[in-house]
## 1
Amino acid sequence: MTKHPDHISASKFIDELRRYQKGSVSRRHFLGVTGLGLATAVLSTAVPGLRPRKAWAGLSGTLNVTTWPNYFSQENYDNFTKQTGVPINVNVFGSNEEMLAKLQAGSTGWDVLVPTNYTISTYKNLDLIEPLDLKLFPSYDPAAQDPRFLGPGTIDGVTYAVPKDWGTTGFIVNTKATTENPTSWKEFFALAQGPLSGKATVHDYQLTTIGSAAKALGYGFNTVDKNELAEIEKLLVATKPHLFAVTSDYQPAMRNGDAAMAMCWTNDAAQLNRDMPEMSYRLGKDGGEIWVDHYAVIKGAPNREAAYAFLDFILTPDINAKEIEAHGTPTTDSRVLKLLPESILKNPILYPAADQLTALEYGAAETLTNPDRAELMARFKSA
Amino acid sequence: MRGSRPGMMNLSMASTSRPKLVTTLLLLPAGLFFVFLLLVPLAVVLIFSFGERAPAGGYMPAFTLQNYMDLPARGKAFFNTLTLAPLGTLLTALFAFPMAYFLAVKVSPKWRVTLLILVMAPFWTSQLLRYYAWMMILGNKGIPGWLAMVGLDVRIINTPWAVLIGAVYGFLPLMVPPIYVSLEKLDKRLLEASADLGATPARTFWQVTLPLALPGVATGSMLVFILLMGDYILPQFLGGGKVFFIGNALVDLFLQSRNWPFGAAVSVALVAIMFVTIYVYMRFVLSKTDTRRAALV
Amino acid sequence: MLRAYAICIYIFLYLPISLIVFFSFNAGKYAMSWEGFSLFWYGKAFSNPLIMGALKTSVIIALSTAVLSAIIGTLTALGLERVRGWLRVTFDALIYIAIMVPGIVIGISTLIAFVSLFDVVNPSLASMGIKLQMGTWAVIAAHVLFNIAVVALLVRARLQGMDRSLVDASEDLYATPLGTFRQVVLPLLAPSILAGFLLSFTFSFEDFIIAYFVSGPDTTLPIYIFSSIRRGVTPEINAVGSVVLLTSFVLLIIAQAVLRRGERTTPP
């Protein structure tokens, strides 16, 4: 498959046909996407075809993408460079706060960024991202998106960001290292202070660390109430001496046994569990976070054309499917879902039972800029 | 007349304008750098430290002392830095001294430089990777893992001990050379004379060797102290967010919580502490070493 | 006993480094669990455009820094020989301040000063299609600042230890000032300038914290390594580290040979 980056699958062809029939894509796009595949698509499942190269002609320069660690397929990015001649320069960050801080600190040389749901409205208000011109990346189809995940990227009817993938924030337990069986954040923090003292980690990230501690105390995930925050600070500061580390990069510590329990995102959980089956991922039954990461284009991007060509490329279902397979984060796109292997679709880490998701909440925009939460986190870290 | 003029290049004729022009041209580039990349930015930091955090983060003009009053909120970071940085410096000097002594006094001149370079060479390799290696050595699969096999439950990584080990490891290559240089000047005849006069080796060491080495120890210590006070990588990697330095607090304030004014105030406090410490140190230690040396000669 | 102590210190210094090199040959995916010998990660590292890009950025920064610092630092040391009074005192103070202010504060102050400046000037420059931003140039500028001070101190130490009679002799032979400088002073200063060049290169190539603040969208090798370590290192990074290590050892040996020759030609 990798030898034929220009193939088009049969199911994609049908999808394109339906979209064309529904009128959601232009005829030019339909012919462009399906291209020569038209004649042979019905005969084979994967045949060489043509991408709409026309839209990608005349690109030059470099594309600067900022994203999270272990969150893209290098193979896909290489193929983009092969097809467009535009090399991709990737920057990775540890948190949304860090990304925003870098943007505010004048790092305006980027083109594409990967913001999490709760940050998009702030980026928009600070005039850091531009309203997306959907015509420029026809491979994105709002109709194919899970409607649960379309809200955050659209503000007042204008699309500022499109979904990349979604996931949850729970915790991972090394069942070989402990017989404890936590199922809630309340138990998580109790264990961290007790039997798993010195063996637990929490994120270096205000949203999830404060939010999960809030759930353990029975408050809302996004609380900014000063009294509640004071209680949360007490819990976190009391837990601090017992923690192995405060870090968003817990994979190494979990792998070598320094930590036995860690606050954890879906994709890290999937990667850990893939290599070590004893790694068990749980969602707090008292609540927690559900998130959607997006693609957005920076206002005044030096290479705006390439940014849109990149969105068009990466959101093409078969290419997007390779992304998901590479980093193990659930997709929001029903067309991509059809292309994924059973092993991914049946993985309860990626696709937990629906009832487990009901207790989860989106992060709120307010938490990103709230000075009290920021200061609480900083005090907790320096405690 | 020639001898009375300062400097070695007799280009300067104070009465003519051309040499003045030459002097100006020689000093101008550095002057520009010092003004625009040191003085102006430091002034900006000072101004910002009296400001307020903008609603979405960053800086908002204001005049308030609140940021300085909030400094105790980073008390632990200041405490950690102000205890572990001097302690780390002291330990590094203690470990470096015998090494420098060995190289300067015991090793044959033929091998001295090579062996000294071997001490310095680690500093030329990625600091990040070296600390990463220590994360592994001090982690569960490293030394504590072996100790666990004999029934000892020891935790080192993410404790102040790990940070101290890292400090000695990271800065030994910087501490040994200056001590070596001052010991190398040590005239061996002095040692012999001391022995001939009936001094015990210990007495010779305390009264001859050590005073001679002090300038080197002082230089090396100052260098290491400066680097440790502003360190971020060492506490980040070997302290794991649990042993927090001022450097970590600063990275947090500028690259996470985006509270520039408070960050500026912490920076001003750090620089102020360093200037005062170094001033006192130079007054006290350096003047003392000078008088001792004078007394010896 | 001292000898045994020295051996222990060498082991202490080189054990972590040998671990890095050892695991660069690891066939497995994780940096610290051995699964057999392989050169796979070397190939991988050298075909990784991100690593190569970061390496290139770092080399550009370090070379520019070293060249600029060596030149400006030497000029400064020479200039300071010619002045007395307040100017001399001021420059001495600035040199010490540049060395004493921690790198992290240099990074922060450069960042906020320039970002604030850009916020003011960028709107008016926009009409000309110019947009100023942080980046490689800012890293170089901040590195040069610190290293000017280092080179100036090194060269000055050499100048002060220099035999004045050589200069006098040259002048008595009616050499022009520039001729004296080129033929007498510069060769005498060469070892210290070279030492300053190498030190500047190393400080710049190794620096993480200043670049972390001011590099804007550009990635240097230490920044790349930092983010790799955060997410769990593959032996790829060990491979790059080993190559950098080997290169710096070779450079160090060459530099030492050059410095020694310099010392032999100029008796102290």
## 2
Amino acid sequence: MSNPRGKSFLGRFGVHIAVLIFVTIWTIPTLGILVSSLRDKDQLVVSGWWTALSTSSDTQAGRTDAADKQVEKDGKFLIMGNLFGAGDARTVTAFGTRAQQPTQYEAGTAADLGEGVTLQVNDDGSYVLSSPKAFEGSRGQRVYFSASSPPRFTTDNYKSVLFSEGIGRSFINSLTVTIPSTVIPILIAAFAAYALAWMRFPGRALLIAVIIGLLVVPLQMSLIPLLKLYNGVGLFFGVPAKTYLGIWLAHTGFGLPFAIYLLRAYIAGLPREIMESARIDGASDFEIFVKIVLPLSFPVLASFAIFQFLWVWNDLLVAMVFLRADADQLVLTAKLNNLLGSRGGDWEILTTSAFVTIIVPLIVFFSLQRYFVRGLLAGSVKGG
Amino acid sequence: MTAQILSAILTVIIGVGGCVAYFWGANKLLDLVFPSRGVKGSAAVDNLRRQGMIRPWLFVGPALLIVTIYLIYPVIDTIRLSFMDRTGQNVVGLANYSWAVGDREFRNSIFNNLLWLIVVPAACTFLGLIIAVLTDKIWWGNIAKSLVFMPLAISFVGASVIWKFVYEYRAEGQTQIGILNAIVQYFGGAPQVWISMPFWNNFFLMVILIWIQTGFAMVILSSALRGIPEETIEAAVIDGANPFQIFWKIMVPQIWGTIAVVWTTITILVLKVFDIVLTMTNGQWNSQVLANLMFDWMFRGGGDFGRGATIAVIIMLAVVPIMIWNIRQANREGGGGH
């Protein structure tokens, strides 16, 4: 867009900065869980995710081996070992023997503990405790040390949530709910939209008004009667009340007003000449719909499909009412809600699960943004 | 699990196949019962007229049936249930409504909902408008828009986890892993348990919805801003208006209609919002809202359908004015169609 407003350099710079601030605020929270989901879970709890790339250090306590491991060498008694387990990538920067001064000595130096006893801790965690007299007692020397660890990134969190926390199963469940719920309303709505846009019949205006009214009816108005209805049907036919079929139909019903509204607005805007010339050529309404309207409506059908997909995938309320809360039927959103209760402080589980939950909508959104925006504009600017 | 995937795919096939079969079959049947071709004179005209009367209903029939079962009937039944007891069997008159008026939690919900209704639509519209105006002026505006728009694709539950992590609290002196408390601590403040501060926690929950919905407002308003004729803005520049005057006196008045649409759309969403409160606080610390309270009563103690229905009706009442406005607006724009 050309900018006819004579702006100073400062003014234009200010705009860049302002937008940058907004973008930062809007992306930081999501970035936080993405980064955290890839971090080592021990690092995740001790340092902020924004420090993930820097070396983190924290103060820890350990203990040397006890007297039974001592060896005698050159008239001195030595206990040697390593504060870390094998394969630990951390390094010791400083150590101490008292909790008050945990970093009294630098790594690699020998600390004088009195009575000729010395302790040397090297940066790889190995230590030598040496004394002129034999060590006694069953416990080793307490050692405090400051360990710094290089940033560690891992996909272990994903493995664990997908396969042992049940997120993988819920992912399948979400797909099971979403795909039929997205596809089934399309054709039903398209036929209705065509009739409401191009066919003349008494009651049409009323039907359109009803559809527009239903657009804004809160879902809460439907839940209790439908729950009763489903329970009644289940009892009457001796079948489970909470089934995938039930939620497919429910999502179809809840999605139809918007679908009809969106499709009707688009189909009504198709050029009248095409319809009329087809009619003069002897095409029936059915033929006009299938051969002309449906192909021309592809963009709006795609828009609706994206909306419905996102809405169903992201839904929690309908899933909690119409599906059971066991592994067979728990969708991702409901599973995530459960994890928030049961694994409240385990951020490696929560961030990773959250990212698995939002990745599909994000992919859909970024790859099909054009259709999404078009549908959004068509769906809201005109009246509704 | 494989069986489950297969059954889902089968449903798609049966569902779509069934729809195709119905529309095609019903249409064919109509042509057979009232043939208009190969029949002479007035019979053909009569049949054509009958077809014209019936065919639209064949087309809208399935949609009408499903909408009736899933929306129209439930709305009526919910209103009826709001005058019944917890089982939905015995009439209790206005008892549920008088319970609601006296219930502390309900009154708290009404108060919080009013806060949400005042803050969220206003904040989303305002921020959306500002971002729309600013991003229109820079070369990387579309990328910026995409990023602000992105949360719209994220579920409320996902967003709640994202923000719960932002709000995460560790005792003072410990390393904060929630970014908000880390910032507070960096500037020398004391870390807070944000979501359990009565009254203020409402705002921390609202931030989540504002974060999600600003992108929506931005996209709609951005397209409306592009519709403003360049000449009006140029004329204002020539007359010596500064950018703020251009924004408030030229741009905003021209997109009033769109602002109203964005505002009402977000208002309706706010009334229905339930997931955020359920996952963040479940109504604790005085953060309850009507939609979550309704869900709560649906299942509390085996479920109180009367009270649940009453709360739903109250949410509905708040929506009705917007509904009427929408319908009138659509009629005025020639909602009757062709």
